[in-house]
Specification:
Layout (H helix, E strand, L loop, with lengths): L12 H11 L10 E4 L3 E7 L9 H27 L2 E8 L2 E6 L11 H12 L6 H15 L1 H20 L4
Parallel strand pairs: 2-3
Antiparallel strand pairs: 1-2, 3-4
Helix pairs in contact: 3-4
Length: 170
Amino acid sequence: MRSKSTSVPQTNAEELLAWFHDALPEGWFSSEANVRHDADEILVVGDLGEPGAGLDHDQQIAAFREATREQRMEIADRAQARFRRVVSWGVECGDAQVLFTTLNAPAMTRLRLDERAVLDSLIEGGIARSRSEALAWCVRLVGQHEGDWIAELADALDEVKRVRDSGPAA
């Protein structure tokens, strides 16, 4: 488990959402942006709606990305100074989702022989090119198949944090 760094301020999802709601220009997205975060990264994904003006999804996304680049960089710089995390961007357009930039954070782990054999089988089978890629594949698979359970666990942890934060000061 990652130890909490004292250099990264504790931030809750509501605070991030409110900050980005104020910082994002009106009209960029068809609904409120989805803002997710962990100790390393803030990911902002906005919905562009259905493509218009005779453009397909890819063209609409490329046009938005280019037109908003400078403003997104300025917003990211302000957010990174305040929240001390990398800011990544993405959009949804119709049924397409594109993440422009995202952080690939290393996660150190110790695996026993049988666990390494699973990763090595994925490499030998052409599913992954490295143990790192194989491990990421396994994590994505668990997220897909156990997503509801993981979301429930995350909600429970948020509630524990809320109760702990409302308790008496040490």
